Amino acid sequence: MLIYEVTLAVDGEAAPRYSSWLREHIREMLGLDGFEAAVWYATSDDGEEAPPPDEPTGDRTWTVQYQVRDRDALQAYFDEHADELREAGPEHSDHVTADRRILEQKRLFQG
Predict the structure, then answer these.
(1) Whole-angstrom distance, CA of residue 56 vs CA of residue 48
(2) DSSP string covering the chain, please?
(3) Cα–Cα distance between 87 and 90 in angstroms, integer?
(4) Residues 29-45: pLDDT tens digits?
(5) Quick check: 36 and 69 in contact, CB under 8 A?
(6) Euclidean distance between CA atoms 64 and 4, whole angstroms
(7) Distance (Å, rounded) from C-alpha 48 to C-alpha 70?
(8) For 41-58, how does the pLDDT look when each residue is reduced to its tens digit (9 = 90+)?
(9) Which pLDDT belongs to residue 16?
(10) What is the rounded CA–CA span in Å between residue 9 and residue 15?
(11) Which pTM value belongs to this model?
(12) What parts of the chain have a pLDDT lower than 50?
C-alpha cells in the first residue's frame, strides 16, 4: 500500500468554497480503481484547535492522504486522470497551492 499525500495551503476567504469542492473531489478520487480510502487532516501549528473547514477565519493548511493499493494504480491515476481532475478545481484555485508526495511503508513498528 502507498499513501498519496496532497497538502493544500488555502486562503481563508476561499476556504468555505474550496472545502465544499474538496469533499466532492475526494469522493471522486475514491471512485478510481486502487484508491481505497482517504483521510482529510486540518493542520494547526500553534496547538489550538483548527477551525471548521467551512468557516472563513484565516488561511488554512489541509492534508489529504489517499490510501492507494499499489504503484500501478497510482501510475494509472497520473497517466489517465490527474491532469483532468486537477484542472477541474474551482475557479478560486489561485487562492490554493498544493504540494504532493508519495509515502511507501517500509516497516511497521508496534509498541
Answers:
(1) 16
(2) -EEEEEEEEE-TTTHHHHHHHHHHHHHHHHTSTTEEEEEEEE--TTSSPPPPTTS-SS-EEEEEEEEES-HHHHHHHHHHTHHHHHHTS-GGGGGEEEEEEEEE-------
(3) 8
(4) 999 999 999 999 998 76
(5) yes
(6) 8
(7) 36
(8) 998 766 566 555 565 567
(9) 85
(10) 10
(11) 0.85
(12) none
All three cell numbers of 97, joined, read 497551492
Rounded distance, CA 26 to CA 22, Å? 6
Domains in the chain (CATH in brackets) are 2-104 (3.30.70.100)
| Residues 82, 74: Cα–Cα separation, whole Å | 10
pLDDT of residue 49: 60
Residues in the chain: 111
pLDDT of residue 72: 98
Residue type, 77: Y
